Recover the amino acids of this structure.
């Protein structure tokens, strides 16, 4: 923590040199990514906080971190001993960043941001809020280029092709659909900074971000120009020829800024929540900008039938690995050889034996007992609990496969449980089942069906603060948009082909956590005189522990759903198992 305080002191020295009275450090990179290359992990470097979401604000005499409920406990632990105060974002009593700055600063004082990594939409809002007190937003500086003396370079790993047999659609066809969609918005071009959207559009993958098979790049697409801005050393001759055959030009990553400054008289489709403030300003200076929900993200989110089948296929392999993992876990825990850390190693080992496995989709979250209440807890080899044959264990994990990405959470009973644990477990299960059975009309937003996962809890005065569901990429980022299921309003409606997770939870601070998560595909349920109605197809294939279930709390329909799900899991997974494994799974999926 002394090191963190010294880093803050160096930032303040830089601020004084530039006449800045505050500086804001977001979690994003130049592509507004959630998970980022080490080169852009400035917020982590300046604070020591390792969560994926958070903003650090430093004034000349104060420092604070704003983060959401997923990270409250983690942030308390990681900030302890530093001068950085924790601000629990989105709670009614927590001051917002703009209000904090307006209270701390005076008229004409200056707030610095690095406009190359600050989201355009957020910067525009912040600028307007500060201007109410005549405080100036300055987007001109990256202090970490100077004060972070051992800053990692940008990654240099090679790009590789996502083969057409898995991608299911050519680059030309995707670009055609993208430009057709842009035309609906009266635009003739599209600027894309989002790494996963570029990877999807051009059928490429990489390893520039841990667990996310993407490459650092920007793209500009119009009828006449299709340009990929990328470190050209990362592109092999074979891939360069592939791009040439698709009329895609390769230019060096550092040339993107100069290209934009010279580009003019285009109507450019952008999403100000998905590009940096500096790029936004450059485009707006010489072109007509159509600011809308990312059309590339929308196209990517609506999975084709080939992609949907890919998810179904990889879920079988994932389910086989998970079954073998839970058999191992049940037998190993009484021997005292299981730790939170080696749970992740074992899951990776078993998944890697399946075809088309390409890695984990995120670091395994294995939280035993009180650690289960930390939403994004990540055990390390040196700081990991031994799992005992008692209480609850929460495991959130996922795999990357050439034909899909998986994300699953299961909470299992390891021994005797309290009645409170059983009630909470059953409430979470009821919430997951409630959303799984949803049928809803076209035009429904995720916020309108979120209550289905919370209703049983709310009736008992219980709630969780994180979202219920997020999109999942196709051999891409485990978190993708623009769709979501959460209480907060999101204007994007649920559409056929969209993948979402279903993951309600209950977290008892310093006691235990419960979460059950499946992935679901949005499919057509029916067409009536009232239009189209959609439903969810559950994709995940893994048993749900029934030993903590309080059957009397569940309705007959909920019990029927669980029994039907377990029968499906057994029918699909058991043909791939040994006789001993089949017997184990039959017992775990037996009717209640």
């Amino acid at each position: 923590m002394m090191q963190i305080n010294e880093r803050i002191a160096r930032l303040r020295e830089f601020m004084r040199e530039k006449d800045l009275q505050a500086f804001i450090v977001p979690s994003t990179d130049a592509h507004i990514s959630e998970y980022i290359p080490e080169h852009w992990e400035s917020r982590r470097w300046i604070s020591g906080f390792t969560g994926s979401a958070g903003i650090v604000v430093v004034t000349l005499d104060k420092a604070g971190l704003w983060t959401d409920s997923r990270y409250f406990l983690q942030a308390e632990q990681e900030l302890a001993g530093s001068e950085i105060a924790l601000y629990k974002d989105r709670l009614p009593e927590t001051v917002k960043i703009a209000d904090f700055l307006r209270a701390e600063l005076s008229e004409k004082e200056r707030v610095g941001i690095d406009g190359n990594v600050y989201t355009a939409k957020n910067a525009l809002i912040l600028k307007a809020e500060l201007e109410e007190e005549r405080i100036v937003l300055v987007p001109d500086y990256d202090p970490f280029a100077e004060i972070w003396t051992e800053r990692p370079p940008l990654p240099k790993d090679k790009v590789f092709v996502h083969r057409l047999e898995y991608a299911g659609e050519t680059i030309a066809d995707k670009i055609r659909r993208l430009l057709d969609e842009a035309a609906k918005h009266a635009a003739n071009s599209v600027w894309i900074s989002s790494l996963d959207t570029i990877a999807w559009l051009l059928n490429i993958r990489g390893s520039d971000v841990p667990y996310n098979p993407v490459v650092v790049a920007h793209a500009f697409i119009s009828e006449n120009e299709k340009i990929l801005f990328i470190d050209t050393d990362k592109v092999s001759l074979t891939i360069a020829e592939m791009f040439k055959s698709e009329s895609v030009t390769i230019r060096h990553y550092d040339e993107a800024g100069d290209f934009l400054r010279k580009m003019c008289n285009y109507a450019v489709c952008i999403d100000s929540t998905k590009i940096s403030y500096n790029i936004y300003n450059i485009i707006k200076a010489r072109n007509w900008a159509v600011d809308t929900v990312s059309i590339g993200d929308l196209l990517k989110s609506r999975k084709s039938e080939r992609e949907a089948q890919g998810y179904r296929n990889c879920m079988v392999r994932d389910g086989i690995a998970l079954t073998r993992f839970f058999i191992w876990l049940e037998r190993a825990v009484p021997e005292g050889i299981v730790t939170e850390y080696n749970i992740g190693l074992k899951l990776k080992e078993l998944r890697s034996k399946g075809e088309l496995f390409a890695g984990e989709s995120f670091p395994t979250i294995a939280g035993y007992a009180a650690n289960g209440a930390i939403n994004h807890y990540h055990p390390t080899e040196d700081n990991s609990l031994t799992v005992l044959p008692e209480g609850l264990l929460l495991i959130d994990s996922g795999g990357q496969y050439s034909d899909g990405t998986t994300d699953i959470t299961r909470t299992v009973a390891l021994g005797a449980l309290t009645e409170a644990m059983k009630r909470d477990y059953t409430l979470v299960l009821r919430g997951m089942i409630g959303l799984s059975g949803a049928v809803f009309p076209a035009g429904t937003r995720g916020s309108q069906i979120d209550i289905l996962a919370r209703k049983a809890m709310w009736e008992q005065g219980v709630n969780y603060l994180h979202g219920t569901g997020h999109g999942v990429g196709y051999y891409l980022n485990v978190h993708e948009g623009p769709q979501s299921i959460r209480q907060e309003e999101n204007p994007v409606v649920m559409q056929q082909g969209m993948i979402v997770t279903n993951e309600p939870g209950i977290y008892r601070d310093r006691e235990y956590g419960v979460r059950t998560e499946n992935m679901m595909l949005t499919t057509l349920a029916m067409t009536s005189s009232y239009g189209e109605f959609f439903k969810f197809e559950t994709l995940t294939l893994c048993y749900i522990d029934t030993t903590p279930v309080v059957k009397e709390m569940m309705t007959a329909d909920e019990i029927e759903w669980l029994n039907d799900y377990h029968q499906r899991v057994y029918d699909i997974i058991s043909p791939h198992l040994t006789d001993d494994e089949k017997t184990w799974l039959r017992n775990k999926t037996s009717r209640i």
Q: What stands out?
A: The first strand starts at residue 22 and ends at 25. The chain has a mean pLDDT of 96. The longest helix spans residues 305-332.
